[in-house]
Design a protein that fits this description.
single chain, alpha/beta, Rossmann fold, Alpha-Beta Plaits, TIM Barrel, eight-stranded mixed barrel, five-stranded mixed β-sheet, 22 helices, about 50% helix
Length: about 575
């Protein structure tokens, strides 16, 4: 109770104690005779929870402050405490202003009765609790309890203002889970949510008390790390986060392989506001994602240029599709024993208007992000069918051509019918077309994917699973899919004779394929030794630079003659 009039303090205390006694409540009163005295007492440590202050009764007519200024000062000093304003004069304007400035209630001293005073105190305390809970809900992510995006931005702006005053650095660390969507699709959203909660719990237990953590959406998190002496301190925090989250290996009964990619942006070196700092941390995180799993990178100015280049490529991509800037190169697939050509893979290429060759690992993700992967796929399918039609008209011997299909295309319910329509338009035998899908294609929308694949298989199109062994493989799903072949990922082929376990993995894939009735194709063959090993363990077909690089159609004839083309 902050009031300079001893008589008023005595009357209020009598009313408080009588009201508390009637309600069978205990009460403790700390008195102050000025604003400075009150602020000093509010700032003193309390030795027990029972001694903590629950509410402030504040007289507006204090000797060292004027009117509502005292109310504002108390609010700044104790923002979590409810305040009841006491005044000796009935003034509706003052009462209204007090409530607008954060007072929980307004009472005239002449009307301080035990019952009404206690009810006012109870109301003010409960209202403050409700306000605090509403504020908490407005600022936190409902699943993890971490800060939400808006609250994280506000906290970051406050930290940047403090950093300007202190001269210390402040960092934002952005990170997300590599291939989290595959976890969700394979194991269900319940387990995905449990994994996010486990991450939040681990962060709360292990970060510095000065750090703040937010979930910005999906599997995207950010850490605000203030009071840093150097950028290296931010790197230590980020590496600690990556390591401790990678230690989460089980959620319930499910084993998970958790990898985190992180990016760091540091104030004041990289950016001057919260939005820019997080944007730059995101850029650094995406650099980590494309470099290697579990990587951490600082933002640098070149990343901004790279982002602008990606945007420019997206704009040029649509024009290139319309003007035939995309085209196909072809790479033979050979029988592992006879080395005769039994198939050809068609691989997308792009030479832009500036005569620059854009690599597929850059433009394919961009096409998927931009929503043009479907028209691009249709354009390349038409080129492949046209080439096959030309070979047929010329009575030349042909083998099946394999086309890579994006997950976005395959999960479209109309994809199967569109592909069949294109094949019929060029009058190409359906058995001369194979489609290659990845494991991620299957799990993103398994029901639609299965229906599309069944339709195409029934029509006569071959179905191959590309990059097998690098995704989340569900054997029950694999069993139910209408597949013809598994393509062993080139990473396993490259490690033959180098990394323990790679040869065993290849052998296991071959045995699995045999049991399920699938043939096997090994891609990425670059040496004779790799080819011999793959042949000896039972791989059916081989593909790679050892036999031929991808080449334009007009250069393919000589290669096919050398390798001997077979029907």
């Amino acid at each position: 109770m902050i009031d300079d009039n001893p008589g008023d303090r005595r009357l209020a205390e009598i009313a408080l104690r009588r009201g508390a006694g009637d309600a069978q409540m205990g009460i403790g009163i700390i008195s102050a005779v000025s604003l400075a005295d009150g602020l000093n007492r509010l700032g003193q440590p309390r030795t027990s929870p029972e001694a903590a202050v629950d509410i402030v009764l504040l007289d507006l007519g204090l000797p060292d402050t004027n009117g509502l200024d005292g109310l504002r000062e108390v609010r700044r000093a104790a923002p979590d405490l409810p305040i009841i304003v006491l005044t000796g004069l009935p003034d509706v304007v003052v009462a209204t202003d007090a409530l607008k400035n954060g007072a929980g209630d307004f009472l005239e001293k002449d009307e301080l009765k035990p019952g009404p005073l206690l009810r006012s105190i109870r109301y003010a305390i409960e209202r403050k609790k409700s306000e605090a809970e509403l504020l908490r809900l407005a600022q936190t992510d409902p699943l993890t309890g971490l800060l939400n995006r808006r609250a994280f931005f506000e906290r970051t702006e406050d930290a940047l203002a403090q950093a300007l005053r202190s001269g210390l650095a402040c960092a934002v660390i952005a990170f997300d889970l590599d291939r989290f969507k595959e976890v969700n699709d394979l194991f269900g959203h319940k387990l995905g949510d449990d994994l996010l909660v486990a991450i939040a719990t681990t962060l709360r237990r292990n970060l510095r008390t000065t750090d703040s953590c937010g979930r910005l959406g999906g599997d995207e998190f950010a850490i605000l790390a203030p009071n840093l002496k150097s950028a290296n301190d931010a790197m230590e925090i980020a590496e600690k986060v990556v390591a401790m989250l990678a230690s989460i290996t089980e959620i319930g009964d499910v084993r998970v392989d958790l990898q985190i990619s992180a990016g760091i942006s540091v104030f004041p070196m990289d950016e001057s506001d919260a939005e820019g700092l997080l944007s730059h941390a995101d850029m650094a995180m995406y650099k980590s994602k494309v470099s290697k799993r579990g990587a951490v990178n600082f933002f640098d100015a070149n990343m901004d240029a790279a982002v602008k280049e990606r945007r420019a490529l997206k704009r040029r991509m649509r024009d290139a599709i319309e003007k035939n800037g995309f085209y196909l190169h072809y790479q033979p697939i050979v029988d592992a024993r006879t080395r005769s050509v039994i198939g050809i893979e068609a691989l997308a290429r792009w030479r832009d208007a500036e005569d620059k060759v854009i690599p597929p690992d850059l433009f394919i993700p961009l096409a998927e992000e931009s929503g043009v992967i479907t028209p691009l796929g249709s354009r390349l399918l038409a080129e492949a069918c046209g080439w096959l039609k030309q070979l047929g008209d010329e009575k030349k011997l042909t083998v099946p051509v394999s086309l890579n299909i994006s997950p976005i295309e395959c999960r479209d319910p109309g994809f199967g019918l569109r592909l069949i329509s294109s094949i019929e338009r060029f009058q190409v035998p359906p058995n001369l077309i194979n489609i290659e899908i990845t494991e991620s294609t299957i799990i993103q929308n398994i029901q639609v994917t299965r229906e599309n694949l069944k339709l195409l298989k029934h029509y006569g199109v071959g179905v191959h699973m590309d990059d097998f062994g690098t995704g989340y493989s569900s054997l029950s799903v694999l069993r139910d899919l209408p597949l013809d072949a598994l393509k062993i990922d080139k990473s396993f082929v490259a490690d033959i004779g180098k990394v323990n376990g790679s040869e065993a993995i290849v052998q296991a894939i071959v045995e699995l394929a045999k049991k399920l009735g699938f043939s096997t194709i090994a891609e990425g063959v670059e040496t004779a030794e790799q080819g011999e090993f793959l042949r000896d363990v039972g791989v059916n077909a081989l593909q790679g630079f050892y036999f031929s690089r991808p080449v334009p159609a007009d250069q393919l004839s000589g290669i096919l003659d050398r390798l001997h083309l077979v029907a």
